[in-house]
Design brief:
Layout: H1 3-9, H2 22-28, H3 40-47, E1 48-49, E2 52-54, E3 60-64, E4 69-70, H4 81-84, H5 88-107, E5 111-119, E6 125-133, E7 140-142, H6 145-148, H7 152-159, E8 163-165, E9 184-192, E10 195-204, H8 212-226
Antiparallel strand pairs: 1-4, 2-3, 5-6, 5-10, 6-7, 8-9, 9-10
Helix pairs in contact: 2-8, 3-5, 5-8
Length: 238
């Protein structure tokens, strides 16, 4: 799907036909999985990350949880770092992280992450964070109507429509707060064949941060991710 068609498909028709080449630049930042065997440190960095302690109502609490989040189970894998060093899913996660870092350098938000639509080991359909830059944040967002009432990520994951929050203080829609420094947000779906297979979420500590150039770059990356296999874990045992 071309960039303008993609922008219309995700509910951003006002950004289609822009003179800017930012969407093309964003698309060019989507990386390819490496072929080489990675280090044990890289395996740990790509699979395991700290998360906030969640309250009984699912909100972010104060401080980090005792146990970090591990992506291996939701990818259908056993966490065996040595065996995962040359696993294709590890290469996929490395490429996703490279993509996020490049896109963050291009758009300069305070936080940016890629979430994949998945079914967790408890049988719940969620958006799971697979790569990010910024402070620790929630790992899974439930894809339910009830959770979407307070979460942009879940709303975008269910609807397939992008959401731009120019000012958190003035926003009346669903919003999940994990960092009270955040003042603006852009959440964009990865739409493949009419299905939401993931999202990119970006946040900034200042209002009106997400200019046309930044929105287009992030949407361009989403379109390129939709055409890639980076949100499809390989069906290979560890």
């Amino acid at each position: 799907m071309d960039h303008d068609s993609y922008l219309r498909a995700i509910g951003l028709p006002d950004y289609a036909d822009a003179a800017s080449d930012a969407a093309r630049r964003g698309a060019s930042l989507v990386a390819r999985p490496p072929h080489e065997t990675v280090s044990l440190e890289t395996v740990e960095d790509r699979y395991v990350y700290p998360v906030p302690e969640l309250g009984e109502d699912g909100t972010c609490g104060v401080g980090l949880a005792d146990d970090p989040y591990n992506l291996a189970p939701i990818c259908g894998l056993e966490y065996d770092p040595e065996r995962l060093r040359d696993h294709p899913n590890t290469a996929r996660l490395v490429a996703l992280q490279s993509t996020v870092e490049s896109l963050a350098a291009e758009t300069d938000p305070d936080w940016l992450g890629v979430y994949r639509r998945a079914t967790n080991p408890d049988g719940e359909e969620v958006l799971v964070k697979e790569a990010y830059v910024g402070e620790p944040s929630r790992a899974e967002f439930p894809l339910t109507e009830s959770f979407a009432e307070r979460s942009n990520n879940s709303t975008v994951g269910l609807s397939g429509d992008a959401v731009l929050v120019e000012s958190v203080d003035d926003y009346d829609g669903p919003y999940y707060e994990c960092d009270d420094s955040v003042q603006s947000e852009f959440c964009c779906p990865v739409l493949a064949g009419g299905d939401v297979v993931g999202i990119i979420d970006a946040e900034a500590h200042e209002p009106d941060f997400f200019t046309e150039e930044r929105v287009l770059a992030i949407a361009g990356a989403c379109g390129a991710l939709a055409d890639s296999d980076l949100l499809t874990p390989p069906r290979v045992e560890a």
